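Q: Sequence in, structure out?
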Amino acid sequence: MNNFFVLKNSGGILVPAEFAGYVVFYKKDKDAAIAEIQRSLLEKMICNGLKLKLENFLFIDISEQPVRLSELKKTLTLKKCFLFGVKENEIGINFDATPYKILNVSNIEFLKVDAPEILEQKKDLKNRLWEQIQLSFKPAK
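A: Exactly. Output:
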């Protein structure tokens, strides 16, 4: 869990070897307690809920290192992008995603939701997120 925030300060992207094409964009809070809430919610969702590894995801703290989606697409195959408290224009996309609804654009699924610290306080929003996450990771028949 020490490598949860995987962007290097030098500007390069440290991609986990087990990266599966899933990117989480968020803004890590400067308050350690709130940052822990953020980390905990994402970890529970991925490890406990989806039964996946954190290493399958690339976590990008856009407040520390702004990244454009187009830059990522040049070097990585992206399948799913999750925007936790991040606006579309903050990662350089020019379409609007309806919150809590999966949107497929150029063979990439996008899901825009509130920041983890807000989700932690609002069970109804957390439930809406979980419904969409389950749809997104539902095995193809």
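Strands lie at 22-26, 57-61, 80-84, 103-105, 108-113.
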